[in-house]
Design goal:
Radius of gyration: 19 Å
Largest sheet: 5 strands, parallel
Order of helices and strands: EHEHEHEHEHHHHHHH
Strand content: 5-15%
Keywords: DNA-binding, Phosphoprotein
Protein name: Response regulator
């Protein structure tokens, strides 16, 4: 008789317990074993080292200065063969490209069908890359025509700061809104202006409206 296949051992990391519990239940229903649920990037790194899961599913955004991508970088430093699936409520092209560039195997959005998350975990476990169909289609289109939008040129945090800049918030107001230091916001906002080639407030707002980031 063939040996019974062991369930895929999965670690989850998300700072919203209800969301994480839902994902854990859906993966469990697919015959996977959730071996840990971390609530912060630093906890995810420590839990990965302790549990040695087959696949780590990491949210990208946490309510701290660290992100799921920071956690992934630390995990990959100690285990270059780590299988990582990223979750995000955002699906901008630059973010997806960056996750793959750093070595992740899959990217799914939080509003995905539970079957998509399970398939992403299975493909990552097998060492394969996984694009949900709608993301694969869009990235294929971008490869052909190119993309110079803020969404493609900025990472998630920079894009959020650009959106707030476009709404007219000052660095101090953005820092307070995002619970980050004013110095951090100042550095990121300057980098954003240089990357996009816009420095005057009117041009920043106009660019954001053009690409649908804020309402006119």
């Amino acid at each position: 008789m063939p040996k019974e296949q062991k369930p895929i051992r999965v670690m989850l990391a998300d700072d919203h317990p209800i969301v994480m519990t839902g994902f854990a239940m859906s993966l469990g229903a697919q015959g996977m074993e959730v071996v840990g649920q971390a609530k912060s990037p630093s906890e995810a790194v420590a839990m990965y080292a302790e549990q040695k899961p087959d696949v780590a599913v990491l949210d990208i955004r946490f309510g701290t200065e660290l992100t799921g991508m920071d956690a992934a970088q630390n995990i990959l430093k100690t285990d270059p063969q780590a299988k990582i699936v990223f979750l995000s409520q955002f699906d901008q092209d630059s973010l997806i490209k960056e996750t793959y560039r750093m070595g992740a195997h899959a990217f799914v959005t939080k509003d995905c069908d539970p079957a998509d998350l399970a398939e992403a975990v299975r493909q990552a476990h097998a060492g394969k890359l996984y694009f949900p169909p709608q993301i694969a289609e869009r990235l294929a289109s971008l490869a052909v025509r190119g993309d110079v939008s803020p969404q493609s040129m900025l990472d998630e945090r920079s894009l959020e700061i650009f959106r707030l800049m476009a709404e007219g918030l000052t660095n101090n107001e953005i820092a307070e809104r995002l619970n980050l230091s004013t110095k951090t916001i100042s550095n990121i906002s300057q980098s954003v202006k240089e990357k996009l080639g816009v420095h005057r407030q009117a041009y920043i707002t106009k660019l954001a409206v053009k690409h649908g980031l804020i309402q006119p």
